[in-house]
Every structure is written in C-alpha cells, then in structure tokens.
Amino acid sequence: MAPLEELRALCLALPEATERLSHGEPTWFVRGRKTFVMFADHHHDDRLAFWCPAPPGVQEELVRTEPDRFFRPPYVGHRGWLGVRLDVDLDWAEVAQIVRDAYRQVAPKSLAALLER
C-alpha cells in the first residue's frame, strides 16, 4: 500500500475520525474539528511526511535522536508538533502508535478512552 493509503487507514480506524483537505493536503480530524494528522506531500520542503501533535517532550527527543526520520515541521513545530517522514524505511507499528498518540492529544477524554479498550 502507498504511504498515503496506509496512513489514511490508520487515521480513519480511530473513533469519530474524519478526513478532508486542509491547505491542499489530506488531513484527519476528531469529530470533524480538531486536527490530529496532516499529510505533507513535499509541503514547503523535499519530504513526504505527516505532521501531528505529540505528547510533551516527544518532538524534541525524536528529532534529536533520529533526525533522519523525524523533524520539527514549519508552522506547528513550535507547538510541539512532530514531523514524521514517510519517504524512509518505515516501521508501520511505530507509525500507528504515533498516530494514536496524536489522536489522544486532541480527542475528548471519552473518545481517547476508547483506545484503551
């Protein structure tokens, strides 16, 4: 499966997740309102990636330890969002966990709790 299709499947499997274009790219929302993943097809750089909110401290740690896979994205990086490259060798189980963590950052507690079941 292409990276976009794989990412789409991960995002849409989450409770009340929806997809629509935002800034010209596929973007996933919780209940159609809060963004939890933004696809970035060479959006202002040469990377195929996605951007997502990360738990406190995660962005800094991953960018520092694995800069070939993770980066601080423009516009939202200063708020702790993480850039995840999709044009490198991927561990889709790790990507799935990052997506779930991003969802937990913005989802209402009642929806986030559904991930624990």
From TrEMBL:
Gene3D superfamilies: 3.90.1150.30. GO terms for molecular function: DNA binding. Keywords: DNA-binding. It comes from the Bacteria. This is MmcQ/YjbR family DNA-binding protein. It comes from Amycolatopsis ultiminotia.
